[in-house]
User: Fold this.
Amino acid sequence: MIILAIDTSTPLASIAIAVDEHIAAESVINTNRTLSARLMPEIVRLLAMLGLSSGDIDLFASSTGPGSFTGVRGGVATIQGLALATGKPCAGFSSLAMLSMNFSLSAIPICPMLDARKSEVYAALYNCSSPLPSPLLNDCVLPPNAFLNQITELTGQPVIFVGDGALRYHDRIAQELGDRAIFAPFPLQSPHAANGILLALHACKHGDMLKPSQLLPVYLRASDAELMKKKN
Amino acid sequence: MIILAIDTSTPLASIAIAVDEHIAAESVINTNRTLSARLMPEIVRLLAMLGLSSGDIDLFASSTGPGSFTGVRGGVATIQGLALATGKPCAGFSSLAMLSMNFSLSAIPICPMLDARKSEVYAALYNCSSPLPSPLLNDCVLPPNAFLNQITELTGQPVIFVGDGALRYHDRIAQELGDRAIFAPFPLQSPHAANGILLALHACKHGDMLKPSQLLPVYLRASDAELMKKKN
Assistant:
């Protein structure tokens, strides 16, 4: 089975292709403001390098957020297009669950945290002691302190923080959690779509495959445009 | 500071570029028998994507093995050439230490294990509870069972196994260590040169930078050609 997975929820986009539960190629690229120009050529390049065409892919997967609205929308649309054109199924996965898997098999809970702007973060708390992460606190969007309070109410144990939100609010996290806050070393800050492949494979095994039209972004909050519309 | 690091000790090669302790681009590609044709174009592509040229790199780093003789030699030679041409320093790091860092901050010791052919493995045991791994058993080449015996003598605790050697000798490891053997999920089997950047940065901070001529492969055993020469 050949799976292509992408994550475009942050400026550091990731693309991975697995053949029979082996990662065959992976790419992490900074797409800041150039996602639409770079994503598809990068997918085409990776496929060509492996001697594959889009028709050889059995399952197309994308993170469905949370993260940059434009990034998530671009990634989901790309995967929808590829699946529609080839008649193959899709799978979606959480960008935060995927990021937490940089610490697979960790005995310590993982807090993936992305900068959501407007003084908020997209965050969750995952138990990653097994290869498939399980949520201790579900994906949400909150001011950093409100989320840190939830962590404190849940556990007095150490927590590993990862993601650009954890970098941005580093001092506040350290202030709130003290010694219990452990920060990811910088090489493990990158999102890896390879981890998304494991999530997609799990969805596939449980019959949770989607038609392209069913693969929907999970924004967790309304866009500025929607808020404006409501106001008027 | 801009660092370029590569690992070519297995057929899955990895290249990463970091700018000021942020991974800017990373690539994992299957170079089976095509390393010499693929490595330099991939480096050039990543540099171009970031708007960089080789002259912008401050430190060139390569894993120095153990691993495929041809792979390690090709990687080291490429980094030596780039450093020589630009007048910049080099740093070397262990392919096994780098691979163990896929489990940075793990409370459980990590055994990176690469297939060394001839019924042997390149293996080590690392404590990865800090971002920089520290060896519990040094990099070596041994028959799998001899190395597993060393682990058993050292610790009765669980161990995480990662690498193509761990995949090849999966059943033997499971037989010897039973429930104590934990196997890396497949997305975390890939080598990540991004982890090599952290090792190179550490070497740099401790004044362990090398001239190109000082960057030497660590094969751990004699090549067939050398053995043949000794025999005759």
Summary: The longest helix of chain A spans residues 69-86. The radius of gyration of chain A is 17 Å.
